[in-house]
Amino acid sequence: MFLEKTVKRNPKLIECAFDLHEKGEILPDTYILDLDAITQNARIMKKEADRYGIDLYFMLKQIGRNPLIASKLLEIGFKGAVAVDYKEALVMIENGIHISNVGHLVQIPKAAMKKILSAKVDYVTVYSREIIKEIDDCAAKINIVQKLLIRLSDEDSQLYSGQEGGFRSSELEDLYQFIETLDNVKLGGFTVFPALLYDEKEKKILPTDNMKALDRAIEFARNRKLEDLNINIPSATCFASLPLISKLHGTSGEPGHGLSGTTPLHRYSDQPEIPAYVYVSEISHNYEGRAFCYGGGHYRRSHMENVLVGKSLKEAREYRVAAPSEESIDYHYEIKGECEVGDCAIMAYRTQIFTTRSHVAVVSGIQSGDPQILGLFNAQGETIRNGWKDE
User: CA angle 68-74-79, nearest 5°?
Assistant: First the structure.
């Protein structure tokens, strides 16, 4: 999906990937994160967000919940992390990363509530009264007042399968009165998901129907004269969408794929952000006229298309590649043509690393010509050893 764009806009990353593979510094099924490119993308985005007074919360599930990347983004001035679920929140807390928003797609379970709230997160997104009451009870025990983001979902909203949940905008008055009866939570703002998406027909990022519910919540807040609320507008956050977030009265965005230059918008057009990761594998074997490389990093919405195979970018050949059918485990990817066993195979497609079993290598110095592996991690942001090199 992004291979040609990466070769065009970040060839140094491709060259680095071939080199690290040839030297045995990484195993097949490793994503390489270009720290220089991610940092450059983040600074571009942060500068534009500051123009509009928009806070940025970084979403790192796509690139493996990586604590090194998180620390760098905090240095740049991002407010904190948005943890898509409690597991990501715990990874960030263990690494001393401030959390701005947690609970949006996955609520905090009872067992993790005290640990997460004690980290003094800015907002907890909620979509049930039961969770609000649990948060209030826990917050009382640790003597804090927790701000809540209300996730909205009206009859004209469109939610992804497995992500259903939310309050109707028509019940906001009753919900507000309920929150006002509690001592240790307060209304902090509103959110929906997804709020923005790339439109292939219009070839730009546009509001989704979910924004209708958010607009109703904004109107409710105005009528109630509620001030200092966070209007959180997530999904497809990048340089190009920040003016739209501002136009829609948003006060915060949540860049994920924007940080790695891999939103659908970045596939079809050259944006200020450049591609910042590749997937590295290795030719395992040939069978009946086809080559197979090691798998493990498949994401079913990846739109995987092409692979570069060889020992360097200069002499590599491009082939078509495909993951196994959905009912099969991605032990290998199939390449349309025979290749030399042991050669490096490089791909660039849309991913969600946290759903894979891949390794992640964070590499600095790629853009300056002096690449250094800063750390090796699993797909959940935990440090691993390069045990394959031990004697």
Answer: 135
